[in-house]
Automatic annotation (TrEMBL):
GO terms for biological process: cysteine biosynthetic process from serine. Belongs to the cysteine synthase/cystathionine beta-synthase family. Pyridoxal 5'-phosphate binds at residues 75, 180-184, 282. Its cofactor is pyridoxal 5'-phosphate. It comes from Fistulifera solaris. This is Cysteine synthase. Residues 8-308 form the Tryptophan synthase beta chain-like PALP domain. The modification N6-(pyridoxal phosphate)lysine is found at residue 44.
Amino acid sequence: MRVAARPSDLVGGTPLIDLSSLVPNHNATLLGKLESLGPCSSVKDRLGKSMIDQAEKEGRLVPGKSVLVEPTSGNTGIALAFIARERGYRCILTMPETMSVERRIMLLALGAEVVLTPKEKAVPGALAKAKEILEELGDKGVMLNQFENPANPKIHRETTGPEIWRDTDGKIDIFVSGVGTGGTVTGVSQYIKGCPEFDCPPLKPDLYTVAVEPQEQMLITEARGGEKIGQQGPHKIQGMGAGLVPKVLGIDLLDEVVPVHSSKAEEMTFKLWMMGLPTGVSSGAIVEAAVQVCSRPENKDKVAVCIIPSFGERYFTHPMFAETKAKAEALTKQPLPEPFDNTEFGFATPRG
């Protein structure tokens, strides 16, 4: 029988879905990799498993003794929380106060402890708080540090990259990914482009790698010598644009960085929902960037794969769903047809 022994054994093996209908004139084939179908519904499930597995292998994590402490924008924290619950670790997570209530509920329901930090300092503020908690815990505390941990890109070299290569029959030409920690875009590109440091032979050295970041926070563009566009500051694309350039990000692997404004990300997210594909706003940003790249004349008939990082149900308190939420709350019950007596259900007359 093909049966998983524990939840973390279900991580990986996510499918591709054809999103080419979003590309004008079907100029190119656009495929989305549905990381939203992982056990805890995000690409960060891979990262959480990889970091915990590696720390256990190194003897840094001991069940019943060690306490996991990590700054997160939400989904990495959820991944760590479900595996911590599975394996018997106490888990303390720090996160900016702007992260959705759904994420907080998920973390608390999984038994994690949540500490919110000021939105003005984004993830760097959550990192500072996590370090303070770590010091208080002494030798019991362990921070896996997703932004610097080599186990982050490693899992994408070993799983995400091979899955994409296999499922596209090696026909992928363009890879598009958002940058939260930078692990996905780095690991997948290393696997397909080739990376002697990690014994990855060049499968397609000319793979065109596109990173996506919020237009309101163009730190990666700046790090590559580019110019920022428009006003810089807070954005609404949860899961990317953490307010820093992650150390695990292989900037030299990037062929282009596409900035996407929060409003454009929201528009594309709604389009995906109307296709029957519930996603979060970071998915909208990535698909928006992918459609832009696929629409170019030079990319006619090419195959692009973009990451769909997380499931949409986690974002209902995001401002983009305010109108939908108001409609849902304004719904009222309707009277039933004969032979029901609707006075029994609080209506003024038998017919309502």
